[in-house]
Amino acid sequence: MKLLNLFFLSHLLLIPTIASNQPFEDGFISGVISNKGLDFAKDLLIEKGIETIVFVKLPKIENTAYVPLVGNAKVTLSDIMIKDVQVNTSNIMIGESGIVVVVTGAIVDLSMKWKYTVSSWLLPFGISDSGTASIKVTGMQVGLTLNLKSKDGTLKLSLLDHGCYVGDLSIKLDGGAAWLYQLLVDAFQDIIASSVEEAISDQITEGIVKLDNILQALPKQVSLDKTVSLNVSFVGNPVLSNSSIAIAINGLFARTSEVFVPQSYKNGFKVSSACGGLPKMIKVSIHEDVFKSASLVYFNAGKLQMVIDELHDQALLNTAGWRFIVPQLYKRYPNDDMQINISASSPPVIQVSYQDIGATLSVDITIDVLEGGEIIPVACISVDVSASCGVEIIGNNLSGSLKLQQFSAYLKWSKIGKLHIRLIQSLISSVLKTAVLPYLNHQLKSLPLPNIDGYGFQNTVILYNYPWISLCSDFSFTEDDYYFIQHSNYVS
Ligand SMILES: *[C@@H]1O[C@H](CO)[C@@H](O)[C@H](O)[C@H]1NC(C)=O
Ligand SMILES: *[C@@H]1O[C@H](CO)[C@@H](O)[C@H](O)[C@H]1NC(C)=O
Ligand SMILES: *[C@@H]1O[C@H](CO)[C@@H](O)[C@H](O)[C@H]1NC(C)=O
Ligand SMILES: *[C@@H]1O[C@H](CO)[C@@H](O)[C@H](O)[C@H]1NC(C)=O
Ligand SMILES: *[C@@H]1O[C@H](CO)[C@@H](O)[C@H](O)[C@H]1NC(C)=O
């Protein structure tokens, strides 16, 4: 026990205090896991660790010893199995050299079978007996030091050091002679103890390798659809401070062939786990450039377009509805259906402010007449729209709502003569309010947040802090892994 304390203390002493503000070079989405989050992760790690340790079978132990008045006893202990592990106290500590997890005062229950044969000159044929026993280990201490580094866009978890030390061990025999009990205590106790220590150490080594394999297998790019993907490569090494771990991913949208080169982002960012005074487990921050890259990529992919052939006021989509207002339209194309083609003329400008996300977009609204299976563009109106987007979390879903701030419109060209500006304004207003915004708001509703293996965000709050928008959240088991299953199909 003394040994362990020294061993881990020496590690902790090596851990210098480091400033919690360190810049990442080009990470546009960062995650900071606070003390509270680390505690949660540690408890989860221990819980999963215990699951892998329970039912572990220890190797058979055989020994021969001379027992006074009895003779030479050959004793075999077999089917030694860990039945239960209880952890009372555990701690996680972070320093520059790594992450230290220490479990103290753990209790381990084991069961085993025993068997002996005794032979002596008094008993030429020998005697033998067998039975079961239970073992209780108390005051067990386990410690491990982990290192987390980024390598070629993925995270690498390695085990720097680990140890397992059994405190006290007691044996309870079901049956058996008094001398056997004494023999087990005298000649076997230490062997059993080191066998337990070895088995648990092996499980730790294996467990960390498994965890590392999971990290290595994380995708570097997630395809959102056929042409657009999100770069989820890790950048820079995780920044460890005494109260948090910060990681960053590139986080920019890219078209399969293009790479977005950000203009405004130069100085790196300050990692902070502050959530406006709220104790949250994790803070995920998204830089404005993430939205800018999305805007550019979707624009270049020709995705910022929509055709409206249904309106609240359907009469507006037939030339007859315009008979008295634009007589020349009705004269040239009597009673023809119309459609409205809305297409962005430049990538939308998206800015994160201190209270919402602002979007300015320029669109060309083309009025098409449908005649004899042909689409005939008859007029085009240029519109500049500014809108604000508020983000909300409902359950495990992210939901955005767009509000129209203002718009201006002018006639770009027309084959049906001059259109009255008041007319244009009211048409555009109607199209924006009754078709475009409801459509976009519907699209922005209920975007499920990632849910991994049943664990999802809970009690999430949104913080706007130009040029970042942050989600401060707790993690909990939600069981609803619908999103992960659905979307893992797209993971490349
Ligand atoms: C963590 O480090 C900061 C300085 O960076 C220090 O003020 C604070 O007391 C430290 N906290 C703990 C728990 O050691
Ligand atoms: C757990 O630890 C607390 C104090 O840290 C102690 O009072 C309690 O007896 C321990 N429980 C067990 C089962 O060891
Ligand atoms: C993804 O991000 C990493 C790190 O910033 C970068 O090295 C890599 O080139 C990016 N990949 C693409 C396809 O943009
Ligand atoms: C919509 O208009 C854009 C240009 O303004 C054009 O490129 C696109 O082909 C049109 N789409 C349809 C379906 O007419
Ligand atoms: C979250 O979104 C999913 C699917 O998009 C939906 O089924 C669920 O009802 C939503 N939950 C809430 C609380 O809005």
TrEMBL record:
Organism of origin: Medicago truncatula
Signal peptide: 1-19
Ranges for domain Lipid-binding serum glycoprotein C-terminal: 276-473
Gene Ontology CC annotations of this record: extracellular space
Keyword Glycoprotein attached: yes
Gene expressing this chain: 25489047
Chain segments annotated as coiled-coil in the UniProt record: none
One of the protein's GO biological processes: reactive oxygen species biosynthetic process
Protein name according to UniProt: LBP/BPI/CETP family, carboxy-terminal domain protein
GO molecular function: lipopolysaccharide binding
Keywords: Glycoprotein, Signal
